[in-house]
Amino acid sequence: MPSGTAPRTVKHFSLHRINNVELRTIADVDDGVIQLMLHEENVIRGYARAGMWPHHRVMLFVLQDLQPLMRQVQDRPGMTRERIAAIQDQPATVLYDLKALDECSVYVNQQASVKAGYWNDLPAMEGLLAHEHAHPIAENDTVRASRMLQLGVVPSASAFNAVLTALCQKLSLLAPREVFANEKALHGGFQPALAHLNQRLISEAASGLPGRTALVQRINNAVASGHHPAHDAAALLLAGDYELCLPLAIEVAPFYRCGMTTQAAQLESILRATLFAALGTAIEHTYTALRDAYVHLPSTYTPAELIKWCSGVMQILVNSFATVGYALEFTLREQVEEPTEVASTATQADEEKSDEYSREDGNDTR
Ligand SMILES: [Zn+2]
């Protein structure tokens, strides 16, 4: 057990077989576990029917929060504090070993799922599980190349640039793995669950619009009182708008990639009626440019080819920040080693069992 971690009480342990797949469910929460397990079984069956299922064993952890996972991965290479912290906001995540696809672990984060409003929305939870399980299925040359690149915004010391870096990484370097995972989930037959999940994502983003007025006020006040430089206030607001809208291109593009243009158009008409209507046509143009980049992204890129593609995506952002007078500068380079163990949260972790839980198997309720 990693140092300083207190074991939690296992409230549910079960072992099921779905065709040839062993599903172990381990939970430290009482409610909702059985329902989630049934949806997990649906996901396994759906991918198996489509001939896409790669694992013999699945560990499904349903946990109050993902602190145990965060502790488990904290000493892994490449794990920065920001990347570990990002895990706690993930409603679900999957851990798998690229060299041993025989098994995987899925972690459902109750706290984050409740906060995101998914916990009681089982079709949305099924969409999340289908997406998470699609990550190992969606491994390809482009996804592997994406792990071999590093992207930064300069100067890296600025607090605003830390926000910009996370946004730019999400929209360029990290986007391929999400686009391909969504595409595989659609091929696996999870179109209704993903469409439902995406409608939720859009309405949640739209529900952030009233907060934008308060943000504008806060930025104006910070500029007026000298706490924030006037020259990047507009860029700060634009980054907030982009955070709200642009990741949705990663969700919608896979529908186009799969020829599901009617569903894609439905999602975009909701986007147009809500977010773009409020934020203007410039943001819609940036969204469309990114969406097209995701729609046409090949799965066979080398790192050198992906550097070109990412630079193109970054150029879209550079140009749009230039319209508010902000010079966005970035670096993009190949890193030395490709990691072998991965998680959908962009962490790199061993496929080690969570020993905090396995220790408790003996005294749980089976
Ligand atoms: Zn993902």
Secondary structure layout:
Layout: E1 12-18, E2 21-27, H1 33-49, E3 57-63, H2 67-73, H3 81-87, E4 92-97, E5 100-109, H4 110-115, H5 122-137, H6 141-146, E6 149-154, H7 159-171, H8 175-187, H9 191-207, H10 209-224, H11 233-245, H12 247-257, H13 261-279, H14 281-295, H15 303-322, E7 329-334, E8 341-343, H16 355-358
Parallel strand pairs: 2-3, 3-5
Antiparallel strand pairs: 1-2, 4-5, 4-8, 6-7
Helix pairs in contact: 1-5, 5-8, 5-9, 7-11, 8-12, 9-12, 9-13, 10-11, 12-13, 12-14, 13-14, 14-15
The structure holds zinc ion (ZN).
Q: Summarize this, please?
A:
The protein is α/β, with parallel strands linked by helices and 366 residues long. The chain has 16 helices and 8 strands.
Top keywords for this entry?
366 residues, alpha/beta, two-stranded antiparallel ribbon, disordered C terminus, binds zinc ion
Tally the helices. Answer: 16
The description of the largest β-sheet is: 6 strands, mixed
Query: Which secondary-structure class do the elements indicate?
Result: alpha/beta
Mean pLDDT: 86
| Strand residue percentage | 5-15%
- Name every ligand kind in the structure: zinc ion
Widest sheet, order of strands: 1-2-3-5-4-8
Number of domains: 1
Q: Distance between termini?
A: 23 Å
Would you list the SSEs in sequence order as H and E? EEHEHHEEHHHEHHHHHHHHHEEH
